[in-house]
Amino acid sequence: MKLIFKPFFAIAAVSLLLASCGGPTTKKSGNSGALSGNAAEKVYVAPGEHDSHYAFISGGFSGQLSVYGLPSGRLFRVIPVFSQDPEKGYGYSEETKPMLMTSHGFIPWGDSHHPDISQTNGSVDGRWVFINENNTPRIARISLETFETEEIIEIPNSAGNHSSSYVTENSEYVVAGTRFAVPFPQRDMPINEMKGNFSGALSFLKIDPEHGNMNIDFQIKMPGFNYDKAHPGRNASSDWFFFTTYNTEEAHTLMEVNSSQNDKDYIAAINWKKVSEYVANGGGEMQAANYAHNTWDNDAHQATTVMEKEVLVVNPMDIPGAFYFLPTAKSPHGCDVDPSGEYIVGSGKLAATMTIHSFSKMLKAIEDKAFDGDAYGIPIINFEAVSYGTLDQPGLGPLHTEFDSRGNAYTTFFISSEVVKWNIKDLKIIDRHSVYYSVGHLMIPGGNSRTPDDKYLVAMNKITKDRYLPTGPEVCQSAQLFDISGEKMELLLDFPTIGEPHYAAGIAAEKIKDKSAKLFNLEDNTHPYAAKSEAESKVVRKGNEVHIYMTMIRSHFAPDNIEGVKVGDKVFFHVTNLEQDYDVPHGISMIGANTSELLIMPGRTTTFTWEPKQVGVWPFYCTDFCSALHQEMQGYVRVSPANSNLPITYTLDDEVPGAEEEL
Ligand code: K7E
Ligand code: CUA
Predict the structure, then answer these.
(1) Ligand 2, closest atom to CA 552?
(2) Which of 76, 266, 392, 630 has the fewest CB within 10 Å, making it most exposed?
(3) pLDDT per residue as tens digits for the range 541-555
(4) Is 0.90 topped by the overall pTM?
(5) What's residue 348's pLDDT?
(6) Measured in angstroms, how far is the CA atom of residue 623 from the centroid of ligand 2?
(7) Cα distance between residue 103 and residue 202, in whole Å
(8) How far apart, in whole angstroms, are the C-alpha atoms of residue 298 and residue 317?
(9) Could you please report the per-residue DSSP string of 464-514?
(10) 264 lines ligand 1 (CB under 6 A)
C-alpha cells in the first residue's frame, strides 16, 4: 500500500533544492573532520569523566527542555515543562497537574522555543533557565538546583508567544512578546477590520532576585504588527530591549504574500528602564485580564494555580523617548545584540542582505531627531542614520546570530544550510561551514551575554535526511557541535535532539554542578498527606474516597496489603519516599490505574489516583530498580464489590505498620 501522496513528492523536491543549494560551494574539506582522530578526541569524555558544559536545548513541539553535556552530546535529562511526561508523572500526579492550568483550562501540551539562563552582571549565573510556550502563551522558570519546573505564568493579550523568553543583564526582567497581533483585550470582531484595531503585547515579567518568582510588571500595547524575536541590550545598551517585527502591512490573509509587501519592516527599540520607572511612579493603567499563575512549592511538594485578574497596561504614546522603530530588511526573524551592546543584528530571512544597526548611531539619531515619520506615533529612525552597515549576500535565509568574545558573529542560513562567521566591525566574512540541513538557531554558551565562552558552537538543524540510520518517515532532528576556538570552525559531532531544537542555552558546568540538589529533606516536607515514617502510614476512607498515606524505602511499601477498597471508590495513593540518600528514587504503579506511574525523589510526597473497575486482588509495584530486592518491592490491594461492608484494613508484615514502635 502506498502511504504517500504524489503532490508531497513535488513539495519535497522543491524543499530539497532549497535545502541543498549553496552546498557544494560552501563545502569544506573540514566536513570530514568528525571522522578524524582529532575531532573524536575533542568530543571524547572518558567513562566516569564529566562534560565541561551543560546545554539546555528546547524541545519545540515536544514542549520540553532537554539537558545535554558538551562536548559529548550525551543526553542527561528531559525536563518536563509544558507537556505531560509519564516517565516522571509530571502533569499526571495530583501535585503537578496545576502546573499545566491556563485560562483555557488544563493543557497537556505546549510548544517550547527559547530557553535563556538568568544573568548577573551580564553573565549567565546558572540559577534558573526560562523558556517560552508559543501556542498558549506562557513563560516557565526552571530551577537549576532541582532541574524541575518551578513556575509557569500565562501571558494575557498575546498569541504565539514567540519573541520570548529573554532575560535582562541582572535578571531584572524576563520578557515575552506576542508573535500574532490580536484584539487587546480579546473581543468578537471581524477579522478584516484588523488593521489599526489589533495590538501587539510586549510583556515584562519582574523576577524576584532571591527566589526567582515572576509577575507581570507591565504590558506594552504596541501597534498590531507581528513581533518575532527579541534581544535585550547588553553593556552600553542594557537599558534597551529590541524586537524584530514583520507584517507591518497588518495583513490578515495569505500572509506569505501579503505580509511581505514592504521592502523594510522594523526592529522596535524600547527603553525598558524608562518604562519601568514610569510604572514604578504610578504610570500605566490596570486592565481586567484572566491568566493562570502556577507556582511549585518545594516544601509542600505541590503546585498551586492562582487566576490573576488584572494587568498593568502601558501605552507607548505616554512615555516619549522610550519607543523607536529601526527600519530593517524585509520580514526579519532573528534579532541579536553583540556582547558590547553596540551592534544590533536583524536577519531578514527573505532579504539578500543582513541589517546591522549601531546603538551609538541610534542615540545620536534620536538626539538629532533624524526621523522618517512615525508608525502609530512611534518615531521611525532614518535608516542611514541608524544603520551601521549591511552584510551583502552572506548566504540564503539568514535566521539567527550568536557571538564570541573576540568580535565575531556567527549567523545561521536556513536555505543555504550553513553557519557563517563574520567580523562584526569590518563586516567581512571569515569562514563558512555547511550544516545538515536547514539550520535554525545556533548557540554559543553565554553567546547572548556580555561574556561568551569561546569554545563551542551548537547548530540546531531542522532536517537530517541521511545523516542517521533511518527510523521510518520521521528522522530525528539534530544538533551539530563545532569547535570555534580557532580561526576556522571545526565540525566535531552530530547528535540527535528531542523534538525540534529551537534555540538553546549553554553554561560552564562548574556554575551549576556543585549546587545541584541531591534530595529533599524529609524534615522540611509539609505536604498535607505526607507520611514521614512508617508509623505515620495509614488508610482513611472518606465517603467513596480512600486516601492511602504510603511510604517507600528499600525495599518495601508501608502498608503493602490493603483491604476494604470497593469498586466505585476513588483511591488516592499519597506516597512518600523516606530515603534520604542521593539518587534513590522509587517508583509506584498500580494495575489498571489510568493516570501515570510515579517516580518519587527522596524526601518527596506525590499522589496518583486509581478508580478500580473490577473486583479482585490487584498488585502494585516499584517501577525503578532501586536495590537487589527491587523485584520484591510490591503489594496488594483487595477490591470488593460496590455493596461490600468490608472495613478498611492495612498491614505490613501482617501488622498495622508502626504498631511495634507504638508498643
Ligand atoms: Cu527561529 Cu522559534 Cu527562535 Cu525556531 S524560532 S528557528
Ligand atoms: Cu523501589 Cu524499586
Answers:
(1) 1
(2) 392
(3) 999 999 999 999 999
(4) yes
(5) 80
(6) 6
(7) 19
(8) 43
(9) -GGGS---SSPPPPEEEEEE-SSSS-EEEEEEE-SS----EEEEEGGGTGG
(10) no
